Amino acid sequence: MERIPILKMGGYLLVSIQVDMHDRLAMQLQDDLTSKIAETCAQGVLIDISSLEMVDSFIGRMLANIAAMSRVLDAETVVVGMQPAVAITLVELGMSLAGVRTALNVERGMELLSASRDAAERQDDLGPR
Amino acid sequence: MTDSVKTKLPDILATHAQDLLASWMQRQLESVATRRDLMSEVELQRQSFEFLNAFHRAAEAGALEDVRHPAWRPVRELLERVSQSRAHQGFSPVETATFVFSLKQPLFERLRDEVKDPRELAAETWMATVALDALGLFTMEVYQKVREEIIARQQQEMLELSTPVVTLWEGVLALPLIGTLDSARTQVVMESLLQRIVDTGSLIAILDITGVPTVDTLVAQHLLKTVAAARLMGADCIISGIRPQIAQTIVHLGVDLNSVTTKATLADAFAVALKRAGLAVTRKEGARNGPAAPLFAPVTER
Questions:
Q1: Which of B86, B111, B134, B284 could make a disulfide contact with B67, Cβ separation 3.0–4.6 Å?
Q2: Which of B198, B202, B203 sits opposite A84 (nearest CB)?
């Protein structure tokens, strides 16, 4: 059965979606990713969807869910490389993925993750407000 | 009416060609519908002359009651040209149609002089009326079609003109919106903005709505859609150029723009964009404090 590979890079997990997403694959990714985050104690998840040409509401919701689940497991999610057509489709579907952070490409996404990790560390030092 | 009926129309058109043209011209020039400011008398004379010639040839070929007959093709083509040029020159529908319909009176006068038998006269007049009416309607149809083409082309041009995406700085795009935002324009704006974000790798896009006359809930919704799409791509949007009246309207309508950075002027938005990009504008050492104030507080390093 085909699976989307999840790569570990330092404290982050990198998911690059290179094939057409279908619902079963999306559910599988959700399962794999959550267990991988728990297993590796990852601080951030980077999902590269630059090869994704088409989305539907299910995939959009899946992205939002993954971000929410990662947050519960204390990992920041950044979705990178969304195509203009995909962005327009998601907006037209009424899904603006409010809880998901986005970046233009993998490099920018990595910068975003390290910036937020630094901020989180400072926050941890200060203790709870 | 069948072809066996002998009509005198071609003969009349041939024998009275000159004075028919003269009195038709006179009628056209007297009529209020002739626009001498748009078209010279010589041009009108030429068109009238060509039409009479073509009309004569077509009438000779028969089938007076059916202007779709191949024999009428030259007449139709001529009228198409006339109608097209008038539509482009800005003639009104009435002014265009008068060209054909004003031929009726001179033609009927000649018929009255030539045909003595009342029954025959009625038949001849009827035939001429049918032909001229059909030609007049045909002229109107072409006129309408040309006008629609002009409108469609202008709409397309407006759409293209109104969506320039400019690069203000490396990584900073600006989109000066001009005119009302409807769904079709929003689509074009969104597509060109997102494409430019990908092409330039920009992080910040400024949507300037100085040129948008009114902002209602629909326009606001379109703006928010564009902002949301840009955010999905990983770029931040700033909305600038919000006039005081528009700020009032937005609040009265209950539109929620809290999720977006908004600034009063494009200059303010640009200053924010530079700041986020970690850039600052400073005054050159020794530069005179001219009237051109800096966009924001100069960084003094002495």
A1: B134
A2: B198
